[in-house]
Amino acid sequence: MKKFLWLFIPMLSGSPAFAADGEALHEANCTQCHDSSVYTRDDHFVTSRDELVSQVRRCEANLELTWFDEDVNAVVDYLDRNYYKFEKPSSQ
Ligand code: HEC
User: Fold this and answer.
1) Could you report the per-residue pLDDT of 17-55, keeping only the tens digit for each?
2) Which of 8, 15, 55, 75 is 20 to 30 A from 40 via CA?
3) Sign of CA dihedral 62, 66, 68, 69
4) Residues 6 or more apart in contact with residue 16 via CB below 8 angstroms
């Protein structure tokens, strides 16, 4: 049982070896066309978490990055937490 718990500690601490790092992904890929001010400008057009997922996919597809859902979700979480502050849907 003890061994089992230790295995999960790196996941809980968000180690990049196990979980996509939304902030790092964003820094590396998403700041060439716009900076983070588009997320907080008065007339920003993303107004729900679903729209945010769609927009991240759209921008990511423009870059031809072919991210996994995990990467998209990590960046959506990062943007939501730091800029948009939508509620997380209870289904997740
Ligand atoms: C090829 C250029 C380009 C890149 C690279 C890019 N975007 Fe965008 N993004 C745009 C454009 C253009 C808009 C629309 C800006 C506007 O309406 O003024 C936009 C808008 C957005 C918005 C909506 C802002 C709002 O109004 O609420 C989000 C969220 C966003 N981008 C996320 C991302 C993410 C995440 C990445 C990295 C995967 C990324 N973008 C990379 C071009 C890009």
Assistant:
1) 557 899 999 999 999 999 999 999 999 999 999 999 999
2) 15
3) positive
4) 24
